## 1
Amino acid sequence: MTLRSGVAVSSAPPPPPQRAPARPAFDAARAPHRDSSSRDGSSRDGSPRDASRAWARAGVPVAVAPAERETPAAVHVVDDLLAHAVAHRASDLHVEAGEEGTTVRLRVDGVLRAGPPVPRGLGPAVASRLKILAGLDIADRLRPQDGRALVRVGSGGGRAVELRVSSLPSVRGENLVLRLLDPEAGLASLDALGLLPADAERLGALLESREGMILVTGPTGSGKTTTLYAALGRILARGGVNVITVEDPVERRLPGVVQVQTHEKAGLGFAAALRAILRQDPDVVLVGEVRDRETAAVAAQAALTGHLVLATLHTVDAVGAVSRLADVGVEPFKLAAALRGVVAQRLVRRLCATCRVPAAAGWTDARLLGRPPDGEPAWTPPAGPDAPCPNCSGAGYQGRVPALEVLLADAPFARRVAAGDAPDALRRAARAGGTRSVWASAVGHLRAGTTGVDELLRVLDAPGAECEEGTDA
Ligand SMILES: [Zn+2]
């Protein structure tokens, strides 16, 4: 995929010729920096003029320079939608067909919120425009499709944004979801992630490993990739190491790292790619996801033969990752010898420093927190949306921080793994070795005033009374 000046270029087949080409770079500075959650539904009366007013009220300029007037309205709407999404740091943009017309929602910091209204009647054209950008077949509205595009958003050449577009035919029409990725984001530093000092210290200790296996686990959207990339950044900073990754998809291009995209149809699955990588004299290998027995076996073998292997899995907690590898057939003694540690992660939203308010009395719940946080500061988002905060658009939160469980596979833990112990026994061994749960880490963020109780409970289930150990910050 290449990027030419100001024009969206897709890796997919070129768009059908009957449509206008992508408009040159548009201006993100025109995009609103305040929340435009469509509190007014007034565009629903349907007149284009009122629709334009609704856009204007939402902060999205409708008037365009004379030279641009000839381009179809849908192109402008899409440009403005993308600019709006980027200005609000959205990870996903939903364009949903409904009885009342097309609606737009944004996912910001993991939470969906309303986006600007789409002028009535323009919904199908907007959907077509997005499908063209992503190289999808606009004539096919009956089958799900997916594609991608690289666009520039903003003035002066703009900022590259990679779009992963998927379409889904619904009973009301076509649903489109765009994932927005920043291909130039590079490596965030571990120090910039907002880890609790205790978590950062344990993670740092784990990353001192020169060989063996480090697993990172958590559901989709839990920030695993960001943490892994940041960990790679720290490893790269040591210098003199050859780092190769196999990923699906390659989300960000990393300087100094050889990244391989899997290609199942071409026979390049994770296991095949991993075997090929091991012939390339790597020091550090990152496996995007361990899904099957073969990948797990090759990864474990690589970890036992002098490589540092980082890999992700989808499990609920750290111990779950160990059990999963055992379940897919990695022999317990090999796993025990290879494993250096496991990181389980969730993201909790960071309270907006501009508008957070001291929490009212009664915010603590001894059962919830394990113990009352005597006199410690507690904060919460403001109650009323009367005057939305300009900093966070009234969300009360801005950005997210990782809550981590960092399990260090010390000798007692490794013995339990080698013995093939059940998850409960492994969990006890981990706790005995000083591993704190993700919940405990999140409570640490709560006590530090970084997040609020409502956010904690939105992301995590409160543990039962029997496992409230280790909630000390
Ligand atoms: Zn705020």
## 2
Amino acid sequence: MSTQAPIAPAPAEEAGRVTTFEPVIIGFTCNWCSYRAADLAGTARTKYPPNIRLIRLMCSGRLDPTFVLKAFAEGADAVMVSGCHPGECHYIEQNYKALRRFQLLRRTIEALGIEPARLQLVWASAGEGVRLAGEIARMTEEVRALGPLDWPAGDIVDIDNVKLEAAWEATGGDADGPPEAPGGVNPEHGAPAPATEAAL
Ligand code: FES
């Protein structure tokens, strides 16, 4: 996601037709579980709405709160944070940190005039492609009912000092491409890659 250009909306406009609002949802996913669940859904041809743009982090605990604010500021209508189920984080308990940040962020965005439902947390293991696809579909409908966000963030948040893209690239994240090979470690059964400063 560029730090310069706003997020392009999903195509919904057709000349001469009244079209349905198509929300843009940014999905921050964990490399070891939810990103793979989304990949599994694709492999199994389980359909989910194209409204979500996935960004891969090494762990949900890597989610800096500014990532979420930056997503809203650049045009996202909603943000999904997804990670390993509690007790299953590959970095011990970083997903509990993500949970705390999520709870804090929900209160923060509400204070900034954003409906809390625009930020949602979903736990999903690597094998839960169908369930994750269902959660994406559910959230898409909920956000569609809320309508566009159009958050006037520039007046509220100093977004120029939020380095989302650099942080994202530092994790090796790729919004569109497949996950990288896990370096010989089966994320389902093997030991996780060692946590590093760059990764976490
Ligand atoms: S949430 Fe998946 S590794 Fe931490």
